[in-house]
Fold this sequence. Notes:
Layout: E1 11-12, E2 20-22, E3 44-46, H1 51-57, H2 60-68, E4 86-90, E5 96-99, E6 103-104, E7 112-113, E8 122-127, E9 134-139, E10 145-150, E11 160-163, E12 168-172, H3 176-179
Antiparallel strand pairs: 1-2, 2-3, 4-5, 4-12, 6-7, 7-11, 8-9, 9-10, 10-11
Amino acid sequence: MQTGKLILVTLLLSLPGIGLLVLDGNAADTGAGAAKPLADGHSVAFSKPTEAELRARLTPLQYEVTQEEATERAFDNAYWDNTQAGIYVDIVSGEPLFSSTDKFESGTGWPSFTRPLEPENVVEKTDRSFFMVRTEVRSKHADSHLGHLFNDGPEPTGLRYCINSASLRFISAADLEKEGYGKYRKLFE
Length: 189
């Protein structure tokens, strides 16, 4: 087979905790619990790692946030004040979730976005915890708890996706190609 022509080649990664069925041959573990992404539009079928694998791959805080619906401390997290250009992906699956082009300073101490980068990767669920009704935001493929959605954001959407940094991995615009997210490069040109 020729390089670049691996469109329908199936490769099952057997690295512990990866759990990906890749259709383009470009996947590998990217560390910190993240799986390699869909590379430039190719398909990936994600299989969620076991609880033991997740505990081994994620930090305790990442595990508590993504798997147990915890909330990290405001103003004491990795991305609340990040102003670099790039995208944010699910720490468990690597699925693209948000872009810095939609990030804004909400004053809450958590990263806030006006919209998802890939709406089909974000699932909204009713959250009735703490004697209130809110909209929880989860990733579609990994089912990671990300944060909550509020209707007090700026234009153009009026929405605020208030997201825990511990559920995310940031990919800088300069590293998009290297990390397999080259299709998003055009957002930053």
